[in-house]
Amino acid sequence: MIRNLKLKNVLLICSTGFILASCSSKSDRIQEYDRPALYWYNKMTKQIADYDLEAADDTFTSLESEHRNSPLLPTSLIILANAHMQEEQYALANFYLDEYIKRFTISKDIDYVRFLKIKANFLGFSYQLRDQQLLDDTIEDIKVFKQKYPQSKYMPLIDTINARVHMAKAQLDIAIADLYKRLDKPKAAKVYKEKAEKTWTKTEDIKEVDVPFYRAIFE
């Protein structure tokens, strides 16, 4: 009898504690709205520092929805893009970079953001023989960057990326030429061999690399 009573008391205490904790947690969530922009910004940066990017994404959503014109938004987008790139989440990084470019085109940092987008695509190559469209898009983005921002301080890095993606493009064409050669289609093989030489003159200098590739200059 006494043992049963003690057991009931323990269960009652545990249940009460669980309910109070749930109510407290629920109360905290209810209060998470209508906060100053700086509150959301500081919370987001702390979550990033704690490697909780999913929570940081949610916090940015709160910042953006409650403070559409906050001067903290451009910086937040760049911080989130860099954080996702650090975790090799390049699609999410590009999402934030595209959002920045769409909303803050005349920003003084626009060349930096466009550089980051090129870098994200560059680091995002997983298979150099499969990401053909990404290669072509990156080459085009570099061409536009060099035309629009010839004095950008990021040009040396852009030039390095440009050389690497052109080598990758040439390597891809060489692989296709070899494939056609094995299939006994010499005309097609010749076409792709010439394309490779047009993209990168000394194709014999291009060495095969492991994937993921091109990342050493940023690590």
From TrEMBL:
Q: Which domain of life is it from?
A: Bacteria
Keyword Membrane in record:
yes
Instruction: Note the Pfam families from the entry.
Output: YfiO
Annotated ranges, domain Outer membrane lipoprotein BamD-like: 39-190
Name of the protein in question: Outer membrane protein assembly factor BamD
Keywords in alphabetical order: Cell outer membrane, Membrane, Signal
NCBIfam families this protein is in?
OM_YfiO
Q: What InterPro entries does the record point to?
A: BamD, BamD-like, TPR-like_helical_dom_sf
